[in-house]
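Exam prep: given the inputs below (a chain plus magnesium ion), describe the expected output before reading on.
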Amino acid sequence: MSKNNNIKNIKELLKSSVSIKDFKEILKLKPDTIIGIDRISGEMLIEKGINNIEDLAKQTVENPIEIKRILPQVLLKWIKIAKLIDKLVNQQLKKEKKLLLIGLDNGGKTSILAIIQERFSITKDLLPTRGVKREKLDFFGFPIISWDLGGQVVYREKMYFNRPEIFFSEADLILYVVDSQDTDRFAESANYFRQVLKSLEEIDEHPPIVIVIHKSDEDTRKTHQWQKNVDTIKNKFDAVFSIFKSFTGKYCDTSIFQKETIMQMFSIALKSVSDTSEIIEHILEDFTEKIEGKGTSIISREGLIFGSYTQSKTDDKLIHNTALILQTLSNFHCSIGLKRENTMTLDFPMNGFTIQGEKLFEYSDLQIPVYLWLLSEKPEKLYEKIDYFKEQISPLINLFL
Ligand SMILES: Nc1nc2c(ncn2[C@@H]2O[C@H](COP(=O)(O)OP(=O)(O)OP(=O)(O)O)[C@@H](O)[C@H]2O)c(=O)[nH]1
Ligand SMILES: [Mg+2]
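Solution:
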């Protein structure tokens, strides 16, 4: 919610004619895009080397530059507005994680992004990516800006390494995609990877890296050849990591024909850049909206809350207190030899809602049951989607526990 407020607040500080296509570009807008700065004053600022909002925001309030035909108190006001825009943009950017997809051409980078966005049909007729394709995407509501770096040799050699600060800087995460079936190109891919790390080191950026061993399709995965390929890939990439010790990487194998492998890889990747409870909350928010509920929470038998999503504090308390009491009751029932129920329900007919707990899975070696608790006016909707939740989402949540 605060994310949209940021955008709204920034828009209010800019002239209505300014359209914002990319957040990062706001700070590069000319000073006179700020509301109240006329064109002539804007030009005077530019003459003094203040070319954009970012430059204006860098001025200190205590000791701003002097411009003859602009009153100091007016200039001060503009500097303060620029500082505010700068702050809001940076807050916003911080929330959106920059994800870089790198790897040779035909590796499957664009296909992976399409799967994450559930665009299955387009994966069949994808063309090679020309240059860099930037896109906003959403992983259960988790905001990400993906930079899909087309892997054809012309871009690799002529673009990225010439301007690494543009392409490689400020990445929160890198997915480096290797085609596990393309044996002839493992060395070429490892070599590209080495160049990428070298460039990153030169600009002093060290984002976490996931090496995606892609096209690990179900049938191929069973073959001896595939296992051999994976070993070769790991050997070659480990050798690169051993040269650049300041980087760490993980390996994941994926296939577009098994969406869950992509989701798991993505979850593992996100785990390295974000607070895991934040990710669980996004997943629950997405699910709660799908089933038109008012709130959900994931709680273990002993009352450990793994994550929750509610629209109001009262609903939050209502779910948690009810869940704790029902779970305590269920623990008592078990202690006297009854079987633990998979579903626990408490109806509030006069208030028109139900609180319901559904056992999701058992956690750790101690097999501690974990329940999904729902507060809803339409609890029957849960049954329409609970299989989806169990299949698609609980493995992801499991990863974060
Ligand atoms: N067998 C198999 N094929 C895949 C998989 N993922 C992608 N492909 C295919 O690989 C080809 C290349 O996929 P893209 O996603 O365009 O590859 P890219 O890495 O974006 O390539 P560039 O844009 O040139 O860098 C397409 O024909 C895809 O259908 C996979 O998991 N298994
Ligand atoms: Mg592509």
